[in-house]
Amino acid sequence: MNETAELPVVLVVDDDKNTREGLQRALEGRYRVLLAESGERALETLAERPVDVLLSDVRMPGMDGLTLLQRALARSPNLICIMLTAYGNVETAVEAMKRGAADFLTKPVNLDHLEMLLARALRARDIEQENRNLRQQLDTRYGLENIISISPRMNEVFETIKLTAPTQATVLLQGESGTGKELAANAIHRLSSRARGPFVAVHCAALSATLLESELFGHEKGAFTGATERRKGRFEMADGGTLFLDEISEIDPSTQIKLLRVLEERRFERVGGRETIEVDIRLLAATNCDLRARVEEGRFRSDLFFRLDVVTITLPPLRERLEDVPLLCRHFLKEFSAKHGKNVEDITAEAVSVLSAYAWPGNVRELRNAIERMVVLSRGPRLTARDVPAPIRLAVQGEAHSGQWRGEPRRAGGGESLEEAERNMIFAALRRSNGNRTEAAQQLGISRRTMQRKLKRYRMENQENPATGAAS
User: Fold this and answer.
1) CA distance 389 to 368
2) Type and span of the H or E element at 35
């Protein structure tokens, strides 16, 4: 491989041949140096190949250095530009900096100073690029970090979020209460180009019609009793960012009309005001009911529904992704152990089995509350089946006796004991991990040693690949 190709590329632009060649001799060896005698030729070079640093004279015939600087940065925003001039003054330096120059040197050039500037500028650029890459990785990987899941159904949700987030499309999030609709909305915001703007959430069901209108659009002083001063609404607060309307199905018909206008025109008036306010927002909405059915019943405007229903994401209830229960248990255990200063480090497989056999009508929110309760009331370093809240244990026992257990895989033939439930959970985890015991143990929130003991106990130690039935 040609080592020269690995060196940073510096483009020296100066109408004076001696200056060009002198800087080339001084920099060669540590940099790959390209030369241009004019701004016009420099732009041609920049169009032909990537350049790391532009080192340009300010005063040149034809295109001057400041114009070159502006056009070069318009073409390559990450280009490092250092300006050179024999006529250095504060005004020129300030103007160069305003146009994006990294630094400014006067002629004759102090080569040691130039070397220092080049090294510092390239190092700063590399650090910024690393930070940019890290932020991108964090956004791509962790924009969804609060939605814990290995479920195939949730993976589909993640993919839709990643595809939708960079756009400006309105998104309607559907799902039962507690399934994580606001977390999904937050992830869409964080993965979007509006991530640096505000994320403003409004829980529509918690407000009366009058209060909701004021909350959304703001009001002028004296607009109604108690309006003692002008107040901005959530639309104004979300300008440049994302507005999330939770439980949008609960908005009354008059507010629906005003909301439709804002979605169509991106402008509105405050309650009691005449001034038209324009906003730049992206709208995300959520509902725990069938909004289309509400339209058919005449309880929700069809034109507003079709405005909202550009992209619909449905979050599955926890009972339809029970494979996530072990991961969620471990995640919440760590969270609440730290929050409450408890030395709880583990949860037994028996406890996970009980929790995985429950239907979770309150979904992830209910599981989170259950784990918090278990941690707070724990007496030892491990949560056991005895720590599971009594209502959950009783519900699981009732379902087992009635043949309605909801775990995975479910058998057609009646209820299962906790041992059978645990065995089936281990079998399912091995199937999902294609026989990888370490990965299966991680899914279940147990150690590999515990997994080996369980396999031996249930005489599954030779079950290497449940997906195919192969055994070692």
Assistant:
1) 12
2) strand 32-36
Paired strand residues for 174: 287, 314
Which domains, from first to last, does the chain contain?
3-134 (3.40.50.2300), 152-316 (3.40.50.300), 320-471 (1.10.8.60)
Distance between CA atoms of 430 and 464, rounded to whole angstroms? 8
Residue 292 CB burial class (10 angstroms; 0-12, 13-18, ≥19): middle
Non-local CB neighbours of 251 within 8 Å, separated by 6+ positions: 204, 212, 245, 259
For residues 428 and 322, the answer to whether their CB atoms sit within 8 Å is: no
Q: For the whole prediction, is pTM greater than 0.85?
A: no
Residue 182 clears pLDDT 80, i.e. is over it: yes
Query: Are 364 and 179 spatial neighbours (Cβ–Cβ below 8 Å)?
Result: yes
Alpha helix (H) residue ranges in 143-196: 152-164, 181-190
Segment 167-195 mean pLDDT: 93
pLDDT digits (tens, 9 = 90+) for 286-325: 999 999 999 999 999 999 999 999 999 999 999 999 888 9
pLDDT at 78: 84
CA terminus-to-terminus distance, the chain: 47
Q: DSSP 3-state assignment of 433?
A: coil
